[in-house]
Specification:
Elements: H1 9-20, H2 22-25, E1 33-44, E2 60-64, E3 69-73, E4 76-87, E5 91-102, E6 107-118, E7 123-139, E8 144-159, E9 166-179, E10 184-197, E11 207-212, E12 216-226, E13 232-246, E14 251-267, H3 273-279, H4 293-298
Antiparallel strand pairs: 1-6, 1-8, 2-5, 3-4, 4-7, 5-6, 7-14, 8-13, 9-10, 9-14, 10-11, 12-13
């Protein structure tokens, strides 16, 4: 039986703000080059609690973006990491991440947001972040495990001088259900996108896609992509879905939900323009359309190499 989809009030308000705020938050008039990448994932209506979740202090475990920050609480994990760096006096970058697992009502929530801008010559700005929530569940034979979820991803880039500046944005969201008992991936869902904006960007560098396994019930609520411009590009997508699976034998199940986002802005010194043009075809470590589900399973040293 299909679940009735629903969201907590706080998640609805936060997502509504994200969906409607692109034009306000990413105004090209603020900078000659601008890039933003942000995403959110929330899970509600878990059919059962993670192992030992009642021991959560103050009804939740949360992590806020710091280098390597994580919170582990008897069977659940939240992790948030952020990094920002700039070169040159006219660039700025900011990375934020947050992850939380709530006991009452039982739900999990995380988001990442990255912003970078620059103006003039001789600058480079980078912002990247990651947020993760995970939980272990003991499923008895004959039981059904289920939950509802919502996923949101937004990318935006603007370049005032596409022949001398470059902006990139990427985002990757993944959800994995892992059978600890048999060391196998049971189900997964992923969303991925990348945009590179400059006069020298390749069409193949602008991508958007998503994938899901059989037990993920998915509805694409909203999707809009604007590719091909040398000045301004964007991606915005909102998914609502549910998961439901019955187990014929006792199973220890691990849920891992992770998102990574990155942005860069750059402009060379005039003498370095040729070198920059040669490098415009390259993408960074976070860029591209591949789902990184194998990295999520390695978080718990499961030994799984690929999904």
């Amino acid at each position: 039986m299909k679940q009735k989809l629903g969201l907590t009030k706080s998640a609805v308000l936060f997502i509504s703000t994200l969906v409607t705020s692109l034009g306000i938050a990413a105004s090209p008039s603020l900078a000659a080059t601008l890039a933003r990448s942000r995403s959110i994932f929330t899970i509600d209506y878990y059919s059962q609690s993670p192992e030992n979740v009642p021991t959560l202090p103050e009804d939740s475990a949360e992590a806020i973006a710091e280098p390597g920050m994580s919170v582990i609480t008897n069977g659940i994990l939240t992790s948030a990491k952020g990094r920002a760096s700039v070169t040159g006096s006219t660039a700025m970058a900011n990375a934020e991440a947050y992850a939380s697992f709530f006991k009452n009502p039982l739900s999990s929530f995380n988001y990442t947001t990255n912003f970078a801008s620059g103006k003039g010559n001789g600058y480079f700005g980078l912002a990247q972040s990651e947020a993760k929530v995970a939980g272990d569940f003991s499923i008895k034979a004959g039981e059904t495990f289920s939950f509802d979820f919502i996923a949101f991803l937004e990318l935006y880039t603007y370049v005032g001088d596409p022949f001398g500046e470059k902006a990139t944005a990427s985002g990757d969201i993944s959800l994995v259900l892992f059978d600890i008992t048999n060391q196998t991936v049971l189900d997964s869902f992923s969303v991925f996108s990348n945009i590179v904006t400059s006069a020298y960007a390749k069409p193949s560098e602008d991508v958007f896609g998503y994938d899901k396994s059989q037990n993920i019930n998915l509805g694409l609520i909203y999707k809009k992509t604007s590719f091909g411009s040398i000045n301004e590009e964007s991606v915005k997508a909102l998914f609502e879905g549910s998961y439901q699976r019955s187990f014929q034998s006792d199973t220890r199940l691990r849920l891992i939900e992770t998102k990574t986002n990155q942005v860069t802005v750059e402009a060379p010194e005039p003498s370095n323009t040729f070198a920059l043009l040669l490098g415009f075809g390259l993408t960074g470590a976070f860029l591209g359309a591949k789902s990184k589900l194998n990295r999520q399973s390695k978080l718990f040293s499961t030994g799984t190499d690929k999904v």
